[in-house]
Amino acid sequence: MTNANHPTRALFDEVMVPTYNPATIIPVRGEGSRVWDQDEREYVDFAGGIAVSALGHCHPALVGALNEQANKIWHLSNVMTNEPALKLAKQLVDSTFADKVFFANSGGEANEACLKLARRYAFDKFGEKKNKIIAFKQGFHGRTFFTVTVGGQPKYSDGFGPKPGAITHIPYNDLETFKATIDDETCAVMIEPLQGEGGIIPPDAEFIQQVRDLCTQHNALLIFDEVQTGMGRTGELYAYMGLGVTPDILSTAKSLGGGIPIAAMLTTNEVAEHFQPGTHGSTYGGNPLVCAVANKVVELVNTPQVLSGVKAREQWMREGLNQINEKHHIFTEVRGKGLLLGAALKPEYQGRSREFLMAGIECGVMVLVAGPDVIRFAPSLIIPREDIEEGLARFEQAVAKVMDA
Fold first, then answer.
1. Who's near 330: CB < 8 A, 6+ residues apart?
2. Catalytic residue among 140, 146, 178, 224, which?
3. pLDDT in single tens digits along all 405 residues of the chain
4. Was 140 annotated as part of a binding site?
5. Of 130, 254, 296, 337, which is the active-site residue?
6. Which domains are assigned to the chain?
7. Residue 184, annotated as binding a ligand
8. What is the torsion angle, in degrees rounded to the nearest 10, for the CA atoms of residue 380, residue 386, residue 389 and residue 393?
9. Selected catalytic residue, list 45, 225, 248, 387
10. What DSSP string runs through 167-230?
11. Is 225 annotated in the active site?
């Protein structure tokens, strides 16, 4: 039983702003792809802290990097630079299309930087009329007022007063509408190279290539939101590498820190020069403590062994989910790439994805949702096969529980 001195779930309702409705359990310990709650009940983690825990819980190399840096220096602010930030920026530049890096604390902050930079670039080069941003319905780019407005889900942005303007939302993968929308007043197009919160929707090959080509034609910057898809999640270091399409600006967060809050905006020299001292900033961005951990994450993830292992694990997950579906007939398809997968519910189960999540917790497995109709899986990139098999066995129990309800 829960220790009487431990905080309980009831305390959340008493002291926390009600922006979340967390499960009744409170995890207190994790190791690899397993988590234990206050009652020492074990769970297989297929959620990864929403695609954050790229190397599982308490990976020894990350714990070592954290402890080593904790005994050196924690924080400096950007009045001066620090060694871990410089090393991390160099790793990211050497591994991607980018020439320059800006560090922030969260995906929303990285995307805010992307959007501000795109607007400033267009203003400096083409004047104030070139300010339009194209984004996609059911997209998600963060919770700042700018990013939540660019995200294509009004339920997250309505009710807060006048929204930032000159933003147009169109359907994902709708090439004809995109062609009709982009023009010479478009300053940027922001897109997820695999739509996450909107239902794990992959881009059509022709669509994403045409988006790139039309951005170039209209002198619009292409921004890839790789907050969820980046750092090995799709089996490439970044998803753009598997699409054959290179953005002008890219945001990365989540898996970059392996559980430590960090984000980055990556871009080219030509674009980066339109941010000068004072135009943007972050007190904590590039913090030496978090950068030390992120350096180790990049070092471990950006290897053939881990990246090819993601693709192998995708197949293990797909095979297991398909076997569950052959027996219970609840999914229309399993889609996504790498270890960002979505099981789309059949019409008779639509609107019930959270029921599967909660039943999963009862059965000892943590999963996610991607909207009301899709169950999302984003486990550790190095989850052992035996944990996949055990987690899927528990998930099948959860499926049966929902079906019997």
1. 324, 343, 345, 346, 349, 399, 403
2. 140
3. 445 578 999 999 999 999 999 999 999 999 999 999 999 999 999 999 999 999 999 999 999 999 999 999 999 988 999 999 999 999 999 999 999 999 999 999 999 999 999 999 999 999 999 999 999 999 999 999 999 999 988 988 999 999 999 999 999 999 999 999 999 999 999 999 999 999 999 999 999 999 999 999 999 999 999 999 999 999 999 999 999 999 999 999 999 999 999 999 999 999 999 999 999 999 999 999 999 999 999 999 999 999 999 999 999 999 999 999 999 999 999 999 999 999 999 999 999 999 999 999 999 999 999 999 999 999 999 999 999 999 999 999 999 999 987
4. yes
5. 254
6. 9-58+304-404 (3.90.1150.10), 72-301 (3.40.640.10)
7. no
8. -110
9. 225
10. EEEE-TT-HHHHHHH--TTEEEEEE-SSBTTTT-BPPPHHHHHHHHHHHHHTT-EEEEE-TTTT
11. yes
Using the structure block, give the residue that is written with the tokens 């190279």.
193
Catalytic (active site) residue 401: no
Q: Which one-letter amino acid corresponds to residue 352?
A: R
Is 77 part of any known ligand binding site? no
pTM of the complete model: 0.96
Check residue 292 and give left, alpha or beta (phi > 0: left; psi -120 to 50: alpha).
alpha
Residue 282 among known ligand-binding residues:
yes
